[in-house]
Design brief:
The chain is about 75% helix and about 0% strand. It has about 500 residues and is an all-alpha fold. It has one domain. A two-stranded antiparallel ribbon has the order 1-2. Helix 6 (about 110-145) packs parallel to helix 13 and helix 10 (about 245-270) runs parallel beside helix 12.
């Protein structure tokens, strides 16, 4: 504990340097704006600004503080377009659309935005506290996860999807299957065989996540608006001056705590990230708290769960990066590259050899979380006013954001056709009352599942027994089975009880 306290003292001395403090605030503000743009997300924001931070000759600790501020600022910002436009800023914000957007459509945009800011603050701060106290030990445990354990984790995540969203479990599973099918497109990494490319060279490398999320959410939302305009059924969205209430926080307090814990520990596992954390947290909370079936219709707990989880996961993903030099997510892989550019080797010795960098980053995350809350809460009313933009102007705005954003990042005209085609698919699925979140999560988890399954079977020489050879795998399979079976058993038990009570009443 003395080592932690002395390290934090060193870190806060670095973070409270006026120049570094300014960089924390600038990083958080810029990150929020980047996260709010559909399709950009933290990984692109950090990648775009890394050359600038390096080229300006910042000291290593200052450059890392700026880039980290952009990282968790973008995790905050992703909620803005998710709630207001039903277009997630990045993968971690997909689950936020499920209850955040219905709240905005009901005239509670301010309440949704402010609640998500508070939940994000608590989740992020919780993660930084745990990172300060237990980082080295947790990182060593995370490294013991083998590819077979990751397969079990993905099975658990898919089991959580089974009754995650939507009224129909079948449609949810079909949506996840569509996502899995999209994830298989491209050249097989092991055999070099083309899979479902249909002779189109532009998709030999697979379909980029940004293309899928902007197409299925952004373009599908655009087509829905156009349809309503054509039919004359377009309604202006009500906007009031609502704000988060103590009653909301009281109702969601245990949700935020549970989701912060889930998000942090999933974030530690290399290669998972905020998308898995928010999906598991939402699924867990739906089973625990959704007694009235209000999740997906604007329940504050359904909004608080993914928001706390994805920001906690952002903090958790820093743990293996700093203590072992293993990136926990795509964004921390870029931060790892930034450290190597400055000739700093992450690992167990970094906290003793370069404490100003390691502890300075940790301390800046405490400050950054407070800064994000201070920056975001006063702007809630301004963000909510975006809904007053007439929706016939909102349609071209979404189109411009989608097309310019995709072309700027990917730079391939073919991808503009792809987002249009996926937009038609998303619009069609929405007409059939499919939730699009399982499609996105199936796409994200599919590649993780396939890659780790291949690695596990390669290690064992093709022996499938490796998938159940470790206690961690067995525990996760048991939890997956429980997640599927328990709701069915509880529903049957509830029906029997109600049937028995009716018989007694007769």
């Amino acid at each position: 504990m003395d080592t932690v306290l002395s390290g934090l003292a060193t870190g806060f001395a670095v973070a409270f340097d006026p120049f570094n403090l300014m960089l924390v605030l600038v990083g958080c503000f810029v990150g929020t704006l980047i996260g709010a743009l559909p399709g950009l997300g933290p990984i692109n924001g950090v990648a775009i600004l890394l050359p600038i931070a390096y080229g300006l000759g910042f000291p290593p600790e200052s450059a890392l503080i700026l880039l980290a501020g952009i990282y968790y600022g973008a995790e905050y910002g992703g909620r803005i377009s998710s709630i207001l436009l039903n277009v997630p800023g990045d993968a971690g914000a997909v689950m936020t659309t499920l209850d955040g957007n219905p709240m905005a459509r009901a005239g509670q945009a301010g309440r949704a935005l402010s609640l998500s800011a508070v939940a994000s603050f608590i989740g992020g701060t919780f993660a930084v506290i745990l990172m300060s106290l237990f980082a080295p030990g947790l990182a060593k445990f995370a490294v013991t996860f083998s590819p077979a354990d990751y397969v079990a984790l993905m099975v658990f995540a898919f089991a959580s999807l089974a009754s995650l969203v939507g009224k129909s479990t079948v449609k949810t599973l079909l949506g996840a299957t569509i996502g899995l099918m999209l994830a298989t497109i491209g050249i097989d990494a092991n055999t070099g065989v083309n899979r479902y490319t249909f002779g189109i060279p532009d998709i030999l490398a697979g379909i980029d996540f940004l293309i899928v999320v902007v197409g299925l959410f952004g373009m599908a939302e655009l087509l829905t608006l156009v349809e309503h305009q054509a039919r004359g059924t377009l309604k202006s969205l009500p906007v009031d001056k609502s704000f988060v209430q103590w009653a909301d926080l009281k109702l969601a307090k245990w949700t935020i705590l549970r989701s912060s814990i889930i998000g942090f520990f999933i974030g530690i596992l290399p290669g998972t990230g905020a998308s898995v954390a928010s999906a598991v947290a939402y699924g867990t909370e739906k089973r625990i708290s959704d007694k009235e079936g209000t999740f997906g219709t604007g329940d504050v707990r359904g909004l608080a769960a993914p928001e706390a989880a994805n920001n906690a996961a952002a903090g958790g993903s820093m743990v293996p990066m700093l203590t072992l030099g293993i990136p926990g997510s795509g964004t921390t892989a870029i931060l790892l590259g930034a450290l190597l550019m400055f000739n700093i080797q992450p690992g167990p010795m970094m906290f003793t050899q370069r404490p100003e960098v390691a502890w300075g980053l940790v301390a800046s995350m405490y400050i950054g979380n407070v800064a994000l809350l201070v920056i975001n809460l006063p702007l809630v009313g301004l963000f909510a006013r975006m809904l007053t933009i007439p929706q016939h102007y909102l349609t071209p705005l979404i189109a411009i954001l989608a097309f310019i954003g995709i072309y700027t990042i990917v730079g391939n005209p073919h991808d503009l056709y792809m987002i249009t085609g996926l937009g038609l698919l998303g619009w069609f699925l929405r007409k059939l009352e499919f939730s699009l979140a399982p499609v996105i999560l199936g796409f994200v988890l599919g590649s993780l599942f396939e890659n780790n399954l291949r690695r596990a079977l390669s290690i064992s020489g093709g022996d499938w027994g490796i998938l159940v050879a470790d206690w961690k795998s067995l525990l996760l399979y048991g939890l997956a089975l429980l997640v599927v079976v328990l709701p069915i058993w509880l529903a049957r038990r509830s029906r029997k009880r109600s049937g028995g009570q009716e018989a007694m009443a007769d």
